[in-house]
Amino acid sequence: MVARACARIAGSGGAVDIASLVAAGGSSHRHFIALFRDQVGLTPKRFARLARFEALLTALRAGPTSRPAWAELAAALGYADQSHLNRDVRRFAGVTPSRLPALLEPFGEG
After folding, report:
1. pLDDT, position 62
2. Residue 40 has pLDDT above 50, yes or no
């Protein structure tokens, strides 16, 4: 059950409804969260946030990073809005979104 949930979260880039994972698992919400945390080390919600953040990093690396359209990226990646994207960037990268693209540049190229 947890392996299937992880696969769905990762496959969706973190843009999956946790309640649908619980329903598919056939257990109570509380039991599912505890089981997931025991096996993965994170709650499913935190795991999904990290998957969305990873998808953001992939998108930034793939396209021009000089002036990303943050609101468009947030919508495309399943964030509720740009402020949620901003929160995750600060939480996981420790910088503001405007500083993030510079961190992704290869060393020696600018």
Report:
1. 85
2. yes
